[in-house]
Amino acid sequence: MKKFIRFFICILVLSMTIGVCFEMQSFAAADFPRKAITLIVPWNPGGANDVAARALQPIFKEKSGVDLVIKNVPGGGSAVGITEAIMSKNDGYTLGFATSSFISLAAQDIVKVDLNTLENICMVMEDPIAVVCKTGKYGSLDDLVKDMKARPGEVICAISGTNNPAHVFTVLFGQAVGTELLIISQHSGARCVTDILGGHADISISNYGDFVSQIQAGEMKVLGVMTQERLKMLPEVPTVIESGYNVFAKGVLRQFSFVMGPSNLDVSVKDRLVKLFSESVADERFQSFAKERSFSASGLSGEELNKAIGSTYDAMKIAAAEIFTK
Fold first, then answer.
1. CATH number for the domain including 60?
2. What is d(CA 207, CA 173) in angstroms, rounded to the nearest whole number?
3. In this structure, are 102 and 159 located in the same domain?
4. What DSSP line would sit under 230-248, residue for residue?
5. How far is CA 135 from CA 61, 142, 219, 220, 269, in A?
6. Segment 284-298, tens digit of pLDDT
7. Looking at the 3D structure of the chain, how many domains does it have?
8. Predicted confidence band at 58 (pLDDT cuts at 50, 70, 90)?
9. If you write DSSP's letter for every residue of 44-78 in order, what string do you get?
10. Which of 24, 25, 166, 238 is 20 to 30 Å from the Cα of 314, by its Cα?
């Protein structure tokens, strides 16, 4: 009898302990966030991703009650910053602002990470890759192609990072034209702007958002976009593929940015983050910003976001295997 009573007491104490733990966990999740959240942007300040992240700051604070602190950690084509986010404590207070560039690095095993283990929160922006030049340099994409054929391997193209969708598109565009571009890689889109305006590069193939201010100011011109259809925001600009250059020969690549976190976030914490970021992206102020900067802000989350990441990973794996391993 005494043994039974002791056993019963042990079970009761264990049940109470488990109950308290669940209650504390639920309370912690319900009370989340209680302090500032750090969002690691793996690029230098001034690029499209950095600007978009900073545009979210006041909106996120209004909806969450805490600051969204932007921490720029450039290097390795976004690998350094996102690796820091992945290795951070999985309490929801340190997140990463990942892009298709990081997906590309994972697809090529340059970064050893299983994307399926990470916590994808919300797509913030989808920024098309564009072919741009300084105003007056080329009147059209055909003018660029003529120059490429006249000076094979000498037309200089600045890109942001390497082994990413922009790099793949640059190589595929050269293959479609029948000659190579002379590629110079920079650490950010802002540096590509400097190269173009300073006359150090003939063109750049990178995120349109990196150049939108200069384009709106009339300093730079869009010659074509690396999309399957013309963009609603740039209806007069032809796609590279409609101009006769199939840059999707290895698969359909997309350039987008999304908030992600380390593995094994508490489900309630993740749900709260999804809600806060999705509402911030959907806010009319951020949507107006997106329209001004000419990118789409869908706020995709859940399986739709996972599908976009997976399809981009697959396409990049095929393209990179043929382009970068020769």
1. 3.40.190.150
2. 16
3. no
4. --TTSTTSPBTTTTT--TT
5. 39, 15, 5, 5, 48
6. 999 999 988 878 898
7. 2
8. very high
9. -TTSHHHHHHHHHHHHHHHHHSS-EEEEE---GGG
10. 238
For 258-275, write each residue's pLDDT tens digit.
999 999 999 999 999 999
Which residue segment(s) compose the domain that 53 sits in?
35-126+255-323
What angle do helix axes 284-293 and 48-64 make, rounded to 10 degrees? 170
Residue positions counted in the chain? 326
What's 312's DSSP letter? H
Give, in order, the Cα–Cα distances in Å from 50 to each of 41, 44, 99, 288, 291: 6, 7, 11, 17, 17
Helix, strand, coil percent content, the chain, rounded in steps of 5: 50, 20, 35
pLDDT at 210: 85
Same-domain check for residues 136 and 107: no
Q: Whole-angstrom Cα distance, residue 187 to residue 45?
A: 11
26 or 67, which is more confident: 67
Contact indicator for 101, 161 with CB cutoff of 8 Å: yes
Same domain, 117 and 184: no
For residues 136 and 96, membership in a common domain is answered with no
User: What percentage of the chain reaches a pLDDT higher than 90?
Assistant: 64
Indicate whether 18 belongs to any domain. Answer: no
Query: 37-41 and 68-72 as β-strands: parallel, antiparallel, unpaired?
Result: parallel
DSSP letter at 156 equals E
The confidence score (pLDDT) of residue 20 equals 45
CA distance 151 to 177: 12
